[in-house]
Amino acid sequence: MGDRSVQTAGISPVQQMLASGTGALLTSIFVTPLDVVKTRLQAQQTPFYQALASESAPWGGVIRPSKWKCFLYCNGLMDHIYVCQNGASCTSWYKTPTYFSGTLDAFVKITRHEGPRALWSGLPPTLVMVVPATVIYFTCYDQLRDFLKYHLGFQGSHVPLVAGGLARLGAVTVISPLELVRTKMQSRQLSYGELRMCIRSAVAQDGLLSLWRGWGPTVLRDVPFSALYWFNYELVKARLCEQSRVSQATFSISFTAGAVSGAVAAVLTLPFDVVKTRRQIQLGEMETQGVPLKRTTSTWHMMKEIRAESGYRGLFAGFLPRVIKVAPACAVMISSYEFGKTFFQKINLDRERRAS
Fold this sequence. Notes:
Number of strands: 2
Low-confidence stretches: 1-6, 46-68, 91-96
Radius of gyration: 21 Å
Shape: globular
């Protein structure tokens, strides 16, 4: 990253994919316990008997009385729906054997009563989506940034901003249909043949674009987040390298720059995150219930509803949890990715020296 005399061409795209995939794996392992605890606290606040008796708010999480319950899982890199049926299909995610008074208390009690493995109970479904999405995202960013700099001749701080936004747009567009498919499989336990028929039926009824439901709110949050993240990351990293008098970022510099830029981007895009979270849960529960998907309210209209009900504070709900999760996730991801790229660069240089 940053201004360098050599571009990422010293590393092959496959090596970039391996570095980003390893980073996504490490980040998921690190952050998953935080979201398991958050989900369990959320489940404690809204038990199933309350969810079953609730009627839907205009933008609420519960659509109608149902045996299904959806939670939004986020490991700091990506969000996806986790589906429960009467609390039975996700017992490790939706147990309430003890009362948790807070985050630290939940960590202690889950570890004591259920064992440390329970803190990673959501890891397998996470990796299925996070690793491919992160590989696409980070590899595209490096390739686009180098293309803009070294092939088109663009220079300046706007290059990472444009490359970051376009890379995230591509990743979201590719992953959105896969997320819809995964939600259908998880909620209805369909075979691959049944899933294919279900998708064909949905496309025939609502058109091909029905596979990208929820794409708009996701793009409105994730693309600005990524543009701001890479813009700030490259600036902070360059400044830290200058202060440390090093030509290439060390692990600690990448970690610090990633945390700072992740926190800034998370705060600035929080209103879009609030809308996107509620929209995703709404769409997820409509899918699991088999309810016909109606024309969804626009993002701006949903923001007005939230502001009317909760004021401007409602648009910044979850400020601290989002920053606490996103900042370390970004730090771990980018420092692991940079470390992986440096590792492959050294391997390639050694190979070239031996060949010459």
